[in-house]
Amino acid sequence: MASVSLTVSTVKPLADRVFVKVSASEEKTAGGILLPDTAKEKPQIGEVVQVGPGKRNDDGTRQEPEIKIGDKVLYSKYAGTDVKLGGDEYVLLSEKDILAVVG
Amino acid sequence: MASVSLTVSTVKPLADRVFVKVSASEEKTAGGILLPDTAKEKPQIGEVVQVGPGKRNDDGTRQEPEIKIGDKVLYSKYAGTDVKLGGDEYVLLSEKDILAVVG
Amino acid sequence: MASVSLTVSTVKPLADRVFVKVSASEEKTAGGILLPDTAKEKPQIGEVVQVGPGKRNDDGTRQEPEIKIGDKVLYSKYAGTDVKLGGDEYVLLSEKDILAVVG
Amino acid sequence: MASVSLTVSTVKPLADRVFVKVSASEEKTAGGILLPDTAKEKPQIGEVVQVGPGKRNDDGTRQEPEIKIGDKVLYSKYAGTDVKLGGDEYVLLSEKDILAVVG
Amino acid sequence: MASVSLTVSTVKPLADRVFVKVSASEEKTAGGILLPDTAKEKPQIGEVVQVGPGKRNDDGTRQEPEIKIGDKVLYSKYAGTDVKLGGDEYVLLSEKDILAVVG
Amino acid sequence: MASVSLTVSTVKPLADRVFVKVSASEEKTAGGILLPDTAKEKPQIGEVVQVGPGKRNDDGTRQEPEIKIGDKVLYSKYAGTDVKLGGDEYVLLSEKDILAVVG
Amino acid sequence: MASVSLTVSTVKPLADRVFVKVSASEEKTAGGILLPDTAKEKPQIGEVVQVGPGKRNDDGTRQEPEIKIGDKVLYSKYAGTDVKLGGDEYVLLSEKDILAVVG
């Protein structure tokens, strides 16, 4: 297997998954900014950078994703799989783990 | 990703989720007021400030939310995800975690 | 959020939930009275004071509640959420946690 | 709430539940009698004294109970909720926790 | 409740349950005989002596049992409820806990 | 119950179960042979010697098994029930616990 | 049972399973390469080398796999069953445990 040079554009989430760039915790501690209840917790806000094709139903059709690229989202801190790409943190989430669009 | 200046109006819950402002515990310890069995427990009353579009069925239709903005609700103390916004406490709940409308 | 002055009539359970006033344990230890196997356990009898609109089916219809206001009910001691209101104890239960109507 | 004077005839199980009078363990240790593998275990035989209306299907119809009043039944020792009534032991079981009719 | 004199023929399993007489462990340790991996484990072979009417579907029909009286069966050692009857060991199993017919 | 003299041909798996003869671990440690990640683990390769009639659907039809007698299969090491027969090791598996046909 | 000489081409995953060759961890620590959050974790990238026929629906039809041979995939580190073949590491995964195609 050849070496894999990954960029954000080469990551294609399956089914109802979305690829989210985790926001730096600095910008979340500023005044008037949504932040987790406990400052020690992992970041819970991010920006959607890739969206899967949607959950597949048994009849072959798909559920249209509710999330689109560019959405700022709040997600459950224990959800998904963390990945790093070029020094930045990302998380692969199922759409159901996204609690709200926040921007 | 640019800085996110959040206000209550920018939080858009997904699916059957609702965004609830937690009531200060002071007003709940007054006489004649509903309060949790154990005073040491987390607040369980709040006011709904945002409501998601409703749970999506497999055929693409949605279940109309039973909750509306402004409802005072009683919710299970272990449910949802706590968030802070401008010094106030909020919680993102699924509608099924709301036990009763209390005002 | 303004202060919430709750009374039993302002509590409106959602879906298939019922609001039950817990019977004082004194009246249950009298002769000929149903009481839990272990006297140290929490009360398990109460009187229904509010009933939700019934569980909602996926097609939007509701299942008619089997319980009505005024029913004395026996319920599972680990079920529901305890609340206090004006010095009395109440519990918010799902109808499925009610085992039998006992009066 | 007024005092509740319970008798067997006032207990009306909901859905697919049955109300069972637990057989005294004495009669089960006699020769030729079905008894649990371990003598120290709780009684597992009883007589059905009340039967609920049957499990309700989503379309509002009910599943006819397979058990009738007077049946001697064998049930799983960890199932149900124990209650005492007038000095006798009873158990509220779901029909699915009844393993066999034994008389 | 009168005393219950049980015989195998009076045990009527409900739904998809079967009543199985546990084979004595002696006959299973003989040469050429199927026996559990660990000799210390509980017997796992028995003979079906009673069969329930079959699992009931939601529409009221039943699934015909695949097991019949007289079948020698291999069953999962942790399944079912052990009962003794006249000095012999029996087990009440769901048909799904029977792994294979072995004779 | 008479003594049961079992042979492979007398074992008839129910539903979607298959009866698999466990491969001796010796032949799996040779070069070029598939073997578990940890040599200390239980064997995970075997040969199918009996196949059940297939999983029964609610309407009475069956799902045709994907596995046939003679298939070499890789299966999850924690799946199924171990049995011994004439000194050899066998395992009764559900078809869903078979990961791949390997020969 | 004769000895089994396995090669990648003889491994035929069942249902919705895929057979994946695990990427060497060396190539994943290079600059600009996707790598797990914690360097100590097991590799989570691999190349699909075999694909099963797809998950079977109850009516006998199959869900077409979304993955094809040659895809580079990111998968959950706790998913699947590890196997070794000719000195290389492989993993048998269900398609639902594949998070994204990454090349």
Question: Can you tell me about this structure?
Answer:
The structure is a homoheptamer of 103-residue chains. By secondary structure, the first copy, chain A, is an all-beta fold. Chain A has one domain: Roll (10 Kd Chaperonin, Protein Cpn10, Chain O), CATH 2.30.33. The first copy, chain A, is built from no helices and eight strands. In chain A, strands 6-7-2-4-5-8 form a six-stranded antiparallel sheet, with no helix packed on it. Chains in contact: A-B, A-G, B-C, C-D, D-E, E-F, F-G. Chains A and B meet through strand 3, strand 4 and strand 8 of A and strand 1 and strand 6 of B. Chains A, B, C, D, E, F, G: Pfam families: Cpn10 (PF00166).
List the helices and strands and how they pair.
The structure is a homoheptamer of 103-residue chains.
Chain A: E1 12-13, E2 17-22, E3 35-36, E4 45-51, E5 72-75, E6 81-85, E7 88-94, E8 98-101
